[in-house]
Design brief:
By secondary structure, the chain is mainly α. The protein has three domains: 14-101, Fumarase/aspartase (N-terminal domain) (Fumarase C, Chain B, domain 1, Orthogonal Bundle); 108-356, Fumarase/aspartase (Central domain) (Fumarase C, Chain A, domain 2); 361-447, Fumarase/aspartase (C-terminal domain) (Ribonucleotide Reductase Protein R1, domain 1). 60% of the residues lie in helices and 5% in strands. The protein has helices spanning 14-20, 23-26, 30-46, 52-69, 83-95, 108-144, 164-189, 208-214, 224-229, 232-258, 286-309, 324-347, 353-361, 366-375, 380-397, 406-412, 426-430, 441-459, and strands at 149-154, 157-163, 191-192, 219-220, 266-267, 349-350. Strands 1-2 form a two-stranded antiparallel ribbon. Strands 3-4 form a two-stranded parallel sheet. The longest helix is centred in the first third of the chain and has 37 residues, at 108-144. The chain is elongated. The two termini are 46 Å apart.
């Protein structure tokens, strides 16, 4: 059956049917389509178009279709144009001619928007829960090694010493921003479009606010043409998902490096790694590599819909059918990647020895010494030069920071004081970085407590 056709002398060609059909992918909107249609049936009743008996019959028929859809054979041999046509055909099998009243005053344009919003709203909630699970895992990992010292890097070169929890909280902050973006996207999804018609608004006196309340929407749309033309809400999600994947990819890259033999900081669990078909010794970080790789699929989904929408005239164009597959792809890959990352973080073990040794040997305390000189009255540029000469001399003679004493520092340059020798140990210099957001142990401890509180608030 078709929801259109009276104006046509012949039906569509078989080739066009195959080319334009969307049931193979938009079938996942079926539950949303039924939920929205039941709300619309009740709106028809409130508008005096359906009797109470007809309303009950149609709602019951929709419930029966939904129950049938959970059987494996439901979609077999279905040749319908899309999920909306399938549902209305199945409704006709249950309710008979009464099903023909369901589309009174309703366009597929607004129906598609509604279905997608209902579905995406629930998926955003699922993505957020997966994100919160990863954020909790980062906090838990920080709690297992609260005083571990690692190297912080710039340009992938050893820069300054930081606490392991401080490093993990950096990713927590990234994901906290992602949670904000998802909330903002959800707010724009959570707007009810029914009553907009094809583009000019419905010709029937529907109570749009009542429909919105019934389906739990926070607001109704303000312009019927905008509803027909709008896929911004999908782009908003795709942008948020792309940034999430960007952050996941950076975390994956770090941990691929840190778990390598060259670093030796992390041991990834057997459950998230794989071996080699040829080399018996291998333990490969496949879970992290797949997270990094799937990033491209989500970026591609965002780009696909972005480019599709960029040149469309007002209002609805069939091009917009191409929103579903990239949106579905991004939702699936983003949520799965977050869940995988949580398991990796939950099961990884930090080996604190190698990063601490790297921090002790890599002259990460150079800035601490320069700042100590500055606090003692030496202009910072001059202090920078003095410590630079100390590092150069140490490189020439093969000395590490721990090979120097406070007295030797004072002998090297009169600006040094013997007590500054304490700063040759990375954990001492970190104590000076007590500003909010810094890596001093007490500051990081407070930040962890605050992170747990913020996550509880986010989770509601």
């Amino acid at each position: 059956m078709k929801l259109w056709g009276g104006r046509f002398e012949t039906g569509p060609s078989e080739l066009f049917e195959r080319f334009s059909g969307s049931l193979d992918f938009d079938r996942r909107l079926l539950e949303s389509d039924i939920a929205g249609s039941k709300a619309f049936v009740r709106a028809l009743a409130r508008a005096g178009i359906l009797t109470a008996a007809e309303t009950d019959a149609l709602v019951g028929a929709y419930d029966a279709v939904l129950a049938d859809s959970r059987t494996p054979s439901f979609f077999e041999e279905a040749a319908d144009e899309d999920v909306h046509t399938l549902v209305i055909r199945k409704l006709g099998e249950k309710a008979g001619p009464l099903a023909a009243k369901v589309h009174t005053g309703r366009s597929r344009n607004e129906q598609v928007s509604l279905d997608t919003r209902l579905w995406l709203r629930a998926e955003i909630d699922r993505t957020r829960e997966a994100l919160f699970g990863l954020m909790a895992a980062l906090i838990d990992s920080a709690g297992r090694d609260p005083r571990a010292v690692i190297c912080g890097y710039t340009h992938l070169r050893r820069a300054q010493a930081v606490l392991w929890p401080h490093y993990l909280l950096a990713y927590f902050e990234m994901f906290a921003r992602d949670a904000e973006r998802l909330s903002q996207a959800r707010a724009r999804v959570d707007v009810m479009p029914l009553g907009s018609g094809a583009l000019a608004g419905s010709g029937f006196p529907f109570d749009r606010a009542a429909m919105a309340a019934e389906m739990g929407f926070g607001a109704i749309t303000r312009n019927s043409m905008d509803v027909s033309a709008d896929r911004d809400f999908a782009l908003d999600y795709l942008h948020a998902a792309s940034v999430i994947m960007l952050h996941l990819s950076r975390l994956a890259e770090d941990w691929i490096l840190y778990s390598s033999e060259e670093f030796g900081w992390l041991e990834l669990a057997d459950g998230v790694t794989s071996g080699s078909s040829l080399m018996p010794q291998k333990k490969n970080p496949d879970s992290l590599e797949l997270i990094r790789g799937k990033c491209g699929r989500v970026f591609g989904a965002y780009t696909s819909l972005f480019v599709t929408m960029k040149g469309l005239p007002m209002t609805y164009n069939r091009d917009m059918q191409e929103d579903k597959e990239p949106l579905f792809e991004a939702v699936d890959q983003t949520t799965a990647a977050l869940e995988m990352a949580r398991v990796v973080v939950d099961t990884a073990k930090l080996n604190p020895g190698p990063p601490a040794q790297a921090a002790e040997q890599g002259w990460l305390i150079a800035t601490d010494l320069a700042e100590a000189l500055s606090r003692a009255g030496t202009p910072f540029h001059q202090a920078h030069q003095i410590v630079g000469r100390l590092v150069l001399e140490s490189v020439r003679t093969g000395r590490k920071p721990g090979d120097w004493t406070g007295e030797e520092l004072a002998a090297f340059a009169p600006e040094f004081r013997p007590e500054m020798g304490l700063l040759l140990r990375p954990e001492e210099g970190m104590k000076t970085r007590a500003v909010p957001g810094g890596t001093a142990p007490e500051t990081v401890g407070r930040a962890l407590v605050e992170a747990r509180r913020r996550l509880e608030i986010l989770r509601g």
